[in-house]
Write a structure and sequence with these properties.
The complex is a heterodimer of chains A (130) and B (76). Chain A is α/β, with parallel strands linked by helices and 130 residues long. Chain A is 39% helix and 14% strand. Chain A has one domain: DsrEFH-like (Hypothetical Protein Ychn, Chain: A), CATH 3.40.1260.10. Chain A has 5 helices and 4 strands, in the order βαβααβααβ. In chain A, helix 1 runs parallel beside helix 3. Chain B has 76 residues and is an alpha+beta fold. Chain B has 2 helices and 4 strands. A 4-stranded mixed β-sheet of chain B has the order 1-2-4-3, with helices on one face. Classes of the chains: A alpha/beta (130), B alpha+beta (76).
């Protein structure tokens, strides 16, 4: 049986991928699975406080998602933490490149995490990459 | 005394109605019955799966005029 621990690596900044990552993380978390999310590359800037960035869509589905009452990906990630005890870690390298600190990030994110620690945490889990 | 509550998830898409149910369950007592209203067919299939998985009681699903009514009882 596959591990019930789910590690979600999010590097894309497009709406479809952020949405799918948020759906996997939130539903797994509220179903009692241990969920770790690692945010890096183009995904991280969306998680700065009061970010007004809008994720661009890749295709028709993203356009439709943006026009309908689909739960926002940031709301789903926050619910993954609040309702399901998921842990969401910002990548320390991406924070260094963006020149931001912990205080610049949404409050439901955990502490800055490097790859060494994340790889160690992910060793006995499934890894889903978006 | 067990209560019956309506969780109105109409208009929202997966996993919105499920998340609204979970929020409502948090503020409910064991034995309360919650009826989720959803216009999203995926949620009508997915919510009973979730209820079985986490150990609440699934009571019924009915559909009327494009609105699914999924009724569950809080068990823990």
């Amino acid at each position: 049986m596959a591990s019930s621990k789910i590690c979600v690596v999010v590097v894309s900044g497009t709406l479809e991928r952020l949405q799918m990552a948020a759906m996997v993380a939130s539903v797994a978390a509220v179903s009692g699975q241990e969920v770790l999310v690692f945010l890096s590359m183009n995904a991280l800037p969306f998680f700065t406080r009061q970010s007004s960035l809008k994720a661009p869509h890749e295709g028709e589905m993203g356009r439709l998602i943006a026009s309908k009452k689909v739960p926002e990906f940031k709301t789903l990630f926050e619910q993954a933490v609040e309702l399901g005890d998921a842990k969401i870690y910002p990548c320390s390298m991406a924070m260094d490149v963006l020149a931001i600190g912990q205080g610049d990030l949404e409050g439901y994110l955990g502490e800055a995490t490097g790859l060494t620690k994340f790889l160690d945490d992910a060793r006995d889990g499934q890894v889903w990459t978006f | 005394m067990a209560e019956k509550k309506i969780v109105d998830g109409r208009g929202s898409f997966c996993p919105g109605p499920l998340m609204e149910l979970i929020v409502a369950l948090k503020s409910s007592q064991i034995g309360d019955e919650l009826e989720v209203l959803s216009t999203d067919k995926g949620s009508a299939n997915d919510i009973p799966e979730w209820v079985h998985k986490v150990g609440h009681e699934y009571i019924s699903t009915t559909e009327e005029g494009g609105v699914w009514h999924i009724t569950v009882r809080k068990k823990k």
